[in-house]
Input
Amino acid sequence: QAQLVESGGGLVQPGGSLRLSCAASGFSSSNYDMSWYRQAPGKERELVATITRISDTTSYADSVKGRFTISRAADKNTVYLQMNSLKPEDTAMYYCHANLLKLFKYWGQGTQVTVSS
Output
């Protein structure tokens, strides 16, 4: 059964860094477009970053461009989100998402990121 498990969230001060991990099982994440989304209380879920299955092309929301980096480790079947220069407005639940041609889609359970002094 396909599954995504996020980890690495926590409480960090403004300006700090965190690295989120998304471990896939039951399928090869290298064959999927992998994304990170986030949802803050009272707000809609928004796309943060994507890495494509073809050429590992990356894209980012304007709000995180230059601060966040998405990457994958095929040998570990894991996708990462390195988050630097964190701001209070980055506080949200972060979700991992796998998509294959919109035919197969999987979500993780989420990991909480809180940026506060």
